[in-house]
């Protein structure tokens, strides 16, 4: 079984984006049922985002509701959350103030019902050295408020720079028959060398590799 931050997870992850970040999200009842089914099927690596929705309704709100109803599932799940954006904007903020605001907000919304196992910025802030951003996140790991640090959509060079500051627990990248870049740009080989697991999102090619009927049920297999 694969492991993240020392915990075993299923080979297929569960992406939460579609439950809160779409024009017409599913109902709370539908979402909680889907999440519960994911646990029963062994999909225990969950990936959500502070910006998967609005500041008023995103993955963290849904997760709070889920673990309020099913507190016994909290220890079964390895939770990875993307953050580090300006609230309400698709603008990356890897500054110390931006990172602290984002992680503090995630922890506030989880309200102790679930630990924050992994945190990553949605993208790299090109205006802040990655070493600085990682050092700010690492402060939370050292304080016991965060399990580990992950990266999203990064180059091999960035992985090495980040890993030199603090061990990186996972790297999230798109990977499917339509997206094989990580095999050609040294990212996969770098992660293998450093012992960093890769979390492949959109393995079904964002729905292109499944039928219309299956696409509506592909959230559990699609870390989009």
UniProtKB/TrEMBL annotation:
The keyword RNA-binding does not apply. Residues 12-211 form the NADP-dependent oxidoreductase domain. GO terms for cellular component: cytoplasm. Keywords: Oxidoreductase. Gene3D superfamilies: NADP-dependent oxidoreductase domain. One of its GO terms (molecular function) is oxidoreductase activity. This is NADP-dependent oxidoreductase domain-containing protein. Signal peptide: none annotated. It holds the Pfam family Aldo_ket_red.
